[in-house]
Structure formats: C-alpha cells, structure tokens
Amino acid sequence: MFFKYIYTAWQEIKQHPSRNLLATVEIILAVACVILFFGITAGIQQQIEKNYNFSQRIITLHSGQSVVRDVEGQITEYNIAHSIGAEPNLTKADWQVLREHPEIEVTAPIVNLHAPISNAEGTLMGNSHVIGTDENLISVLGQSLAYGNNALDSHARTAIIGNEVARELFNNSQPIAHEIKIANQTFIVTGVLESIDQLNLFNLDVNYNRSVLISLEAVNGLKSQPAEDISMSKILALSYQLPSDQALQDIDEEILINHNQRDFSLYRNSELLPLLDSILQFLKTLAIVLVIVFLGVGGFSLMIALQSSLRQRRIEINVRKIVGATNFQILYQIIIEATVLSVLGGFLGIILGIMISIFISYLSPVEIVLHLDSLAYVIISMPVLGLIFGLYPALQASSQNPDQRIYE
Fold first, then answer.
1. Second label for 324, Cα 20 to 30 Å away, from 1, 82, 153, 387?
2. 96 — phi, psi (to 5°)?
3. Is residue 396 classed exposed, middle or buried when 0-12, 13-18 and 19+ CB atoms within 10 A define those classes?
4. 116-134: per-residue pLDDT in tens?
5. How many CB atoms lie within 10 A of CB 407?
6. How far is 93 from 106, CA to CA, in rounded Å?
7. Which of these, 59, 72, 38, lies nearest to 107 by C-alpha position?
C-alpha cells in the first residue's frame, strides 16, 4: 500500500510538473545552500587545525596596528583591513632586532611590490604579487619547493614562482631556467613553490600561489633606491619553540624604541587562535540560522504549492470520498506526495550543492569540505520537511465533507 501511494504521488508530479515547480526549485536551492554552508565551515575549521600546529612557533611583526590588546596584554581584536592596508614602515633595524634575539631560529623579511609580471613573450600575469624576501621565507612558512632550488640569496636575478604562475605563464609546472619579466627586468626561474594553502588565516594578505619571490638585492634594482631605505611590510620569525611572553615583550620594547610610536603590530600567530575560534563559532551559528531559514522557506513554498494543487484537485478528492476513501487515506496520500516532492528536491539539491562546492573550490581560495554526516543530516531532514509542511494542507483536504468545496 505504501509503495502504491508513492507511485500515485510520482504520477501526480509527472502529470502536473508546473504545479510543483516553484516548491521543488525552492527546496533544491535551500538544500544546495545547506550543503555549501556546511562545507565552508568544515573547510575553514580543517584549515585552521592544519595550519595551527606549525604556526605556533611563528612571530609576526607587521606594519600598522592590526591587533588590539587589553591591559593584561591579551589580543582582543585583529583588524584584517589594517593588516593589509598599512603602509610599509619596518626597517632593517627592526629586522636586526628579531635576528639577534636568542629565541629566534630564523627570520624572513617581506617587501610587497606592485609590478607587472610577464613571460618572455609578453603574456601578463593578472592578480599577482611580487615579494622581495630572502631564502628563509620558504622554511619560515613551513613550505617547500615542488621543483628546482632556492637560490634567492645567491643570485640577484633569480626568482621562485608560485604554482599558478607556472601554469598560467608557462603552461608548465616545471619551467626551471625559463625567463620571467618583472617591470621589464629579466629574471631566471630557479624554483616553483608547492601549492600553498590560500586560506591560511595567518597569511591572509598574500596569495603565494600567484606570487613571484625575488631577493632584496633585486628589489633595490627595481625600486632604484638604496637598500637601507627600503621599507618592509612584514617580518616573519620562526622561534625554536613556542615563544615566551618575555621574548615578545623584549622584542616589542626594542621595536618601539626604533619607531618612537606604536605604528606596528607584534604577535605570536598562536595568539590569534581564540579570535579565529570565535569567528568559526560565529560562522557555525550563522550557518545553522541560514539552514533553518532556507529550509523553512523551502518548506513553506512546498505547503503553498500543495494548497494550490489541492484547490485544483478538489473534485478528485470529493469523488474519492464519495466512493469510500477515508479521511486517513486522503491525509496519507497527500503527506506521501509532500514527502516525495521534498525528497526529490533534496536529492537534486545535494547534487547541485556538491557541484557548486567543487566549482568554488576550483576557482577560489576557499576549501570546501563535504562530510558524510552533513549529507546524512540533509537526507534525514527531507522526509521530515515534507511531513511537517505537508501536514497542514493534508489535514485541510481530508477534513472536508464530500459535498463541500475544499477551499473557499
């Protein structure tokens, strides 16, 4: 009997698709959004966990006041806009402070340049970065080269390129010894970076996959100014172990003497984790709220579509009652129809959500993780959605006497 009702419901949907089109589309979009939100929050959480262990040892000295501390010295706010938009004002004296501290193992300066990047044929690389640094940056970031060698400090006209630069400019993942032009000056590619997590929340201001790394000596040539005048936007330092509060305080005091004002930020990357956790919790809460809203809208559209359908089928329902159908049988049939619609929309929504997730992951730095448990929640919720929002129109239709109009 159950499968007979399912077959009847399916035939009704096939014969009158326009009646249920809006409700089905609403459910498809709702489920796709659910899959997408779950995937984004899971992806962010996974990337935070993946990046956190190594980043505990990293100290960041940054131009501008991107962090706010309370009276106890705890970070209460991290301003990404200040971090990205601040004018570079770090000097070689600041770099020297970090290099000479006994708890620091290795350091890496970062000078961001705005310069066009092209291959020997003149093909330009869009949305790219030129970074002046030294050979220690790769080890400070905990990364490695996919191909070639790190020769930034050995030769002024060498470059290490990101994997997307290699693919777009050379259509080749191993363009070692190829020429690359930066502001019409020629450099030789000696290495290609492995793909670096673009959504590393400790390095939001740089996409290393679309970057070209050159030496500080090469930066001097591009900027046509003495080396001592070059300002750095950031200096990264890798400590031997988790840096102590005293080490951070000592470094901060010396940097403050150099600047005479607090126009810089100094922090352990591990200090940002509570802020990132709070952001993640906010995203999870937002995702749950949006899931409820989207599913509610989809369910409400389903209910409206059923009511509209039942208005047009009142004669059919009256005839069925006259020939002996009970209220329960009418109720049961309509609930089954609502459930079939909901499950169909949910199935198509899951497919759409997965396709959108793959598309976004391919074209953006957002890594979307689809867990089986989130898919299971959606699959379980679809029949429940149909039952809840199909119950009211089903009760309305089943409670009418055969000689009455079902809807006035």
1. 387
2. -65, -35
3. middle
4. 899 988 888 888 889 999 9
5. 14
6. 16
7. 59
